[in-house]
Design a protein that fits this description.
Number of helices: 4
Oligomer: single chain
Order of helices and strands: HHHH
Structural class: mainly alpha
Largest sheet: none
Length: 160
């Protein structure tokens, strides 16, 4: 009685995007980052381009907070696009992004509340505060997804 065993090995290769990891922009974290960047950019431009702020200090705070987290998000996006996390393994990147989202959510929420209260009916400032709230919501979603990825217990797949 003869038996024949046929073994088939299938390998899949991802096409390399070269230097850029453009596939990241199609993932949920990538889309959330792009949405946050756009919302913060609109909020910053609305505040920066308006004349006659009703409350100077409130909108300076809003402008500084929004610009700071806009720059940080652009840096994080570029880090993912150019795969720079692998070149700096000494930094825990998921924890760094989790910290960024937690601090950013709180500060942008406070800045948006202050901006909406002090807008004084100026439509550009009201729009800026609305986009600040949108960015806050997107940051909370990113915080939740980064928490579930980095802090949730992982299944080992071992049989009990």
């Amino acid at each position: 009685m003869s038996h024949t065993v046929i073994t088939t090995t299938t390998t899949t290769t991802r096409p390399s995007d070269g230097v850029l990891n453009l596939g990241y922009t199609r993932t949920i974290p990538g889309l959330l980052k792009i949405g946050q960047i756009l919302a913060l950019l609109v909020a910053f431009l609305c505040v920066h381009c308006v004349r006659g702020w009703p409350n100077w200090y409130a909108f300076q705070y809003f402008e500084v907070v929004v610009l700071w987290f806009l720059i940080a998000l652009i840096i994080f996006l570029l880090m993912h696009l150019f795969r720079l996390q692998a070149k700096m393994p000494c930094i825990n990147w998921p924890l760094t992004e989790f910290f960024h989202y937690s601090v950013g959510s709180v500060l942008i929420l406070i800045a948006s509340i202050v901006a909406s209260v002090k807008a004084g009916g100026v439509s550009a400032l009201v729009t800026a505060s609305v986009f600040g709230f949108i960015a806050t919501f997107l940051m909370v979603v990113s915080l939740w997804t980064s928490y579930s990825v980095s802090c949730a217990p992982h299944q080992t797949g071992a049989a009990v």
